[in-house]
Write a structure and sequence with these properties.
By secondary structure, this protein is of the alpha/beta class. Helices cover 42% and strands 17% of the residues.
């Protein structure tokens, strides 16, 4: 049968919450178009209830994920890169349509996004070495500082860089043992929703990453005020929204990562996100635990350590 005689099979995009793929509880969807205004798909329009459900899933997953070894988290993140590599053609098409890029430029963006997962996979068991250590003290004590994950992090993904920007803000959050509730780009959510399918088959435990699509301001407000959200990344918020969310986040002393220049109007395309990421996002959502322990005698001779 020729292709022209086949009935087109359109993809149904769904949310990714708690390791499952629900539709929005509100039943709402909205049209997603390409850079020229042509219809691409209907995406679920998440509600406040979906946001609260995502926080519950993220909190439930936090204990197991934060308690896993750093080496194991690195293995899991590397598996995400493997699965993305196998589905590269799909993501090239989605990024090209979402961002108005040529196929070759979209392929370069996807390659960089895959490489970024590998980058952060390699940092999982090393970040503790540069953000912790033994502290000199004037007394018979050991004084050790070690980094620990903050908890549940709400992530407002970049609005213009639908995949590379998303990976750049999400991967460091989970690499360091946090769990995430992600609000995808409102205008270009399809690569993010497809990433949920990759995560579900990449050994990432359900609830570690939860992906919502819809109106950024509508979803961000309840997350910023939620008492069980420990931190929020405002990358995808404009100046006015970011100010409102900072005020709401102060109620339970959330950590706040303010919008970065890379996501400013006119500078937030995927090319801007391709620069070396550094480690600042790895340390943004880490807490430092300092432990004092007395030194003791090792034997009758009175030697000590």
């Amino acid at each position: 049968m020729s292709d022209q005689n086949r009935l087109g099979v359109f993809k149904t995009y769904k949310l990714y919450v708690g390791g499952k793929f629900p539709r929005s509880e509100s039943g709402r969807v909205y049209e997603v178009t390409d850079s020229k205004g042509a219809w691409l798909a209907n995406a679920p329009q998440s509600s406040r209830k979906d946001a609260r459900d995502a926080v519950v899933a993220a909190r439930k997953a936090f204990g197991g994920w934060s308690g896993a070894t750093a080496y194991n988290r690195g293995q899991v993140l590397y598996r995400v890169a493997e699965m993305l590599e196998g589905r590269k053609d799909q993501f090239v098409r989605e990024v090209a349509a979402s961002e108005g890029l040529s196929k070759s430029k979209a392929a370069a963006v996807v390659d960089t996004a895959i490489d970024r997962w590998v980058w952060y996979a390699g940092w999982t068991d090393k970040i503790g070495q540069i953000s912790g250590g033994a502290n000199p003290v004037a007394g018979p004590f050991f004084n050790l500082s070690t980094p620990e994950p903050t908890g549940v992090v709400a992530v407002l993904a970049p609005q213009k860089s639908s995949l590379l920007g998303l990976v750049s803000v999400l991967a460091p959050v989970i690499a360091t043992g946090n769990t995430a509730v992600v609000i995808a780009s409102a205008d270009a959510p399809l690569p993010a929703l497809s990433l949920g399918e990759v995560l579900a088959t990449s050994d990432v435990p359900g609830g570690v990453v939860n992906i919502l699509s819809g109106v950024t301001a509508e979803l961000a407000a309840p997350l910023a005020a939620h008492q069980d959200v420990n931190a929020i990344d405002l990358t995808g918020a404009d100046t006015a929204l970011a100010k409102e969310l900072e005020i709401a986040a102060a109620d339970n002393l959330k950590r706040v990562l303010r919008p970065q220049p890379v996501d400013a109007d006119g500078a937030s395309d995927s090319a801007a996100w391709s620069a070396s990421p550094g480690t600042h996002r790895l340390t943004a959502f880490l807490e430092t635990k300092t432990v004092w322990h007395p030194t003791g005698a090792l034997g009758a001779a009175g030697s000590s350590y």
